[in-house]
Amino acid sequence: MKRHLQHHLKFRHLRVVDAILSHESILQAAKALGLSQPALTKTLQQVEDVIGARLFDRHVRGVTPTAHGRAVGEAARRILLEATHLEDRLDVLDGRDGGQVSVGALPVAASGILPGALARFQASHPEIEVEVHQEQTDPLLAALAAREIDVIVGGHYEEPPDGFVRKAFYDEGVAVLARAGHPIFRLNRPVQIEDVADYPMALPSAFQEVGRDVDDFLADFGFEPHRPLRSSSLPLIRETVQASDSVTVMPKVTMAGDILRGSVRALALETRRAPRPAGVIMRSDAPLLKNAAAFVETFRVHAREVHRALDV
């Protein structure tokens, strides 16, 4: 069956299929596109006529894509994304600076060092919109490969031959952290790792990459935490430390703002373990667009300044 898609499918058709697939609802897709429901339904029928198959099954809670619908929707998403990137590249060639930068942020960077970098970037480039997606490494690498994001910021956990470029701007060195007024800082002697056992601990979950770094750090001391609070939410751990006598073990940059403001302190406990390098991860097969390159430079300057300040 020859469908002649190149002649019959239009961008408006692809946008409609992508919106329905994203919202799983004809009504919500119509609202997102600013169309009436009858107009969107008519466009969907045109696409189904071209494809020669039903794309979505309707039910009381919305719609579910058929096998044909998933295939068309995935292709539509790729084509629309390529069109967006083409528009960005043409803007660069025309010398225009506006547009969006899409940043993928690993949890440690999102919690500690990225907020200051974003504030700095928005102050110097108010015309550029920034969109942040926080996730773990594997989903962000997949999004980077699919060109859904421009750059990833955070720790370099693995460096396989995956075709990405990694540039390190700072280290995610792990430390024992507590609020500045914590009783542990009032000891009349150097703090030992055994002193930490006298207080509750709040730690990142062991399944997280940062959690495994923390467990390795504690293992270097031969220290086994007793029934710690474990959470995948770094903001929750931060608030727990700020509001109680709980102690945490984290990369210092996770609480960079708190440390620099003086509300959190690091205990003088160090291991010989090399700090994890951190910075940005980018595609190697295409140069950064102008706006993304400007963000990376701002992030580099901010990260290095914070890193020097935390090491003082």
Account of the protein in words:
- With 312 residues, this protein is α/β, with parallel strands linked by helices.
- The protein has three domains: 5-89, Arc Repressor Mutant, subunit A; 97-171 and 276-311, D-Maltodextrin-Binding Protein, domain 2, CATH 3.40.190; 174-266, D-Maltodextrin-Binding Protein, domain 2 (3-Layer(aba) Sandwich).
- It is 47% helix and 21% strand.
- The protein has 13 helices and twelve strands.
- The chain has helices at 5-8, 11-23, 26-33, 37-51, 67-93, 107-111, 114-124, 137-145, 193-196, 209-220, 234-243, 256-261, 290-311, and strands at 56-59, 62-65, 99-105, 128-134, 151-155, 164-172, 174-179, 201-204, 229-231, 247-251, 264-266, 276-283.
- The strands form three sheets. Strands 4-3-5-12-6 form a five-stranded mixed sheet, with helices on both faces.
- Helix 3 packs across helix 4 (37-51).
- The protein is elongated.
- The N and C termini lie far apart (70 Å).
- The relative contact order is 0.14.
- The mean pLDDT is 88.
Name of the CATH class of the largest domain: Alpha Beta
CATH architecture of the largest domain: 3-Layer(aba) Sandwich
**Sheet with the most strands: spatial strand order:** 4-3-5-12-6
Number of helical segments? Answer: 13
In percent, how much strand structure appears in the residues?
Answer: 15-25%
Rg (C-alpha, Å): 24 Å
Low-confidence stretches: none
3D shape: elongated
